Amino acid sequence: MKHSLRFALAGTPVLAFAVLSCLSVTAVCQRHQAAPAPTGPWMNTSLSPDERADLVLKEMTLDEKVALLHGIGMPTDEPVTLENAPSNRGVGYAVGVPRLGIPGIDMSDAAYGVRSSGVNGRYSTALPANVAAAASWDVDAAYEYGALIGRELRAQGYNMSLGGGVDITREPRNGRTFEYLGEDPVLAGTLVAKLIEGTQSEHVIGDIKHYAFNDQESGRNSVNNTISKRAARESDLLAFEIGVTKGHPAAVMCSYNRVNGDFACENKWLLTDVLKKDWQFPGFVLSDWGGTHSTEKASAAGLDNEQPGKFFYGDKYKAAVEAGTIPTSELDEHVHRILRSMFAAGVIDYPRQRSVVDPFAGFETARKIEEGGIVLLKNNKAALPLDAAKIRTIAVIGAHSDVGMISGGGSAQVDPIGGNAIKPAGTGATHWQEQIWFPTSPLKAIQARAPRATVKYDPGTDPAAAAAAAKGADVAIVFAYEWESEGMDLPSLALPVYQGVNQDNLIAQVAAANPHTIVVLETGSPVSMPWVEAPAAILEAWFGGSDGANALGNVLFGSVNPSGKLPNTFPKSDADLPHPTVTQPPPESQHFSGPASPEQWAKGLPPFERPYDEGVKVGYKWYDAENKAVLFPFGYGLSYTTYSYSGLTVTPGSTVKVTFTVANTGGRSGAEIAEVYAALPASAQEPPKRLVGFTKVKLDAKQKQTVTVEVDPKYLSIFDEQKDGWTLVPGDYTIMVGGSSDKLPLKATVSLK
Ligand code: BGC
């Protein structure tokens, strides 16, 4: 009751704003009401999206066409104007064609939930970070993730999502690693496709981003990433290819960086040759915010829409069409793509309409996804799950675990209800580059599950005091975290020192004081663990979302059996990475703190080089090929039960069918992620193995199940630059199956051609 009142009130300012704007800005109000209901022949739903788009296009003036090619600035940052009034104050708005009843495109960031909702007086769910969803390896969870985002966007009046990040983890110190879906293109691509399907099922335009190779934040607006076509197509681009061809997003956001010399948003190879021709993407490409750098070049390369403003795609674009330097057919093609995507996603047939977000459903979805994504990294002598009946004292230490859990920042940031948990209530909106803690308290979740135990909190700011608190307890649970955000990279894989506290040292001291120490990590990226031998158990909880603490509590006390597996390798140290440090831009190429003005950014900052000389060897492919031992391998994760694998058969055909049996050999029900890898014939000259399929199997204690994973032949192929296409190299393929990339008990060799 208390809750519902709070949420009902949270919606009030929006209503107040709408009423006020009608009273005081009459013109705005009239315009709002004047938009005619769409009635033209294009409303015939038996026609295809392409046919409907063409019917609209025929009626449009040059000005109307150009207006569809750009945004009108970021409503979030600007006063209400005639143009942006119908928007929801998100990050982008394109005006549509009001005369013909074609609505505006109202965009919000929505990586792990709808951005800027608190500041707009609304509520939205923070799902666990995207990397946590990837750790679930669960296609149904990915769909639910996207559907929740679509639902809440729609409820808030938006009709386009800017989510769907799928740049693979080529650089694990990238500050946006939490927004992405791990280091493997088949895993990331499969999950993003499902996420997009979920979002678009709610009649919201889905987008995948940042196309492509935007793998570090340092110098992201100037860096030139060089890579061979073969390595590109088999690594980062394969994730996008799967996402685009299986998820059918209506939009793709091109990225800030340069690729092989050209900015991604004016890169003909990326936008036209690969995306639009080879993958037959029928939707539209919009630039990342400020990622457009030209008019004629970008247009010819395949950029359809500039965001958030109209530096190049407004008056300059119109002038270019009038001067004949941009052919009308090219303009029409861009407009057609935008319109057909609006029809295809359903934003015209199902106009956006505000409703009330259901926060309770949101909490439940967020909790379940987090429960499926938490990874149990270590569990000596079954230290977990905790037995509430036996434990009398628990020391909960560090990382504000008394009040909340950290979230990822930047444009992905979701506003917590009531504000930042570590600040006094009501301190207001979230700010760029501020650590935001969600009010989901691990301490309370632990106490609730161990009602008879004395649960004490120590802030962990003094490692010696924390160790003393741990010493006297039956169990010590020490939390450590690493905050990540757009706009920065991580200096190293080490857990950071926050406010003078060396978290590695804190963990080491606590674990030395209490043999029953459980470490809970809240990170988006892999971290090194010089103390790994010391604690009894380690959990990776990622950024847990709105209800992270309950998910964690359920895993700690065993009402949920952990089933997540790592979507990123945890290397031993920075020295083992392909590039031991993140390549930094020179001052003149520095976007975030350098001297550059908006005009200079628009023109393009001078490039600096970050060659992708590791090529296709991203993540585990690198460690395998270079023979480097890792801390925790890709695909690794423990359970409270045990599984065994048997009976592999591999049947070639239009897809390669890999059939095997998974048995739950332990005493608890659980869900096992079964992973299928392939080693290609030596003549293919590929890294030792690659993931080609996976499935998550739910099994009761002692139950077994025979499953078949169908492998797309493309996942077994190489990209042949000569042929400019995928080729299956004839020869012997070893198919390997098991529960972790380093533990694949089943092997079979099959000859393919
Ligand atoms: C980010 C995008 C985001 C956009 C709008 C950019 O800085 O790279 O991911 O969608 O801003 O906020």
Give an overview of the whole structure.
- The chain has a six-stranded mixed β-sheet with strand order 10-19-18-15-11-14, sandwiched between helices.
- It is globular.
- The protein is an alpha/beta fold and 753 residues long.
- Bound molecules: beta-D-glucopyranose.
- The site of beta-D-glucopyranose has 8 residues, from strand 4.
- Beta-D-glucopyranose (BGC) binds next to strand 4.
What keywords describe this structure?
globular; alpha/beta; disordered N terminus; 753 residues; binds beta-D-glucopyranose
Indicate the topology.
Elements: H1 2-10, H2 12-24, H3 26-34, H4 49-59, H5 62-67, E1 92-94, E2 105-109, H6 130-136, H7 139-155, E3 160-162, H8 185-200, E4 207-211, E5 223-226, H9 229-234, H10 236-247, E6 251-254, E7 258-259, E8 262-263, H11 268-278, E9 284-287, H12 296-301, H13 315-323, H14 328-345, H15 359-373, E10 375-379, E11 393-397, E12 405-406, E13 437-438, H16 442-449, E14 454-458, H17 463-471, E15 475-481, E16 497-498, E17 501-502, H18 503-513, E18 517-522, E19 537-540, H19 548-556, H20 598-603, E20 608-611, H21 620-625, E21 643-651, E22 656-664, E23 670-679, E24 690-699, E25 704-711, E26 718-720, E27 725-727, E28 731-738, E29 746-752
Parallel strand pairs: 2-3, 4-6, 5-7, 5-20, 6-9, 11-14, 11-15, 15-18, 18-19
Antiparallel strand pairs: 1-2, 7-8, 10-19, 12-13, 16-17, 21-22, 22-25, 23-24, 23-28, 26-27, 28-29
The structure holds beta-D-glucopyranose.
Beta-D-glucopyranose (BGC) is lined by residues 91, 109, 162, 209-210, 288-289, 411.
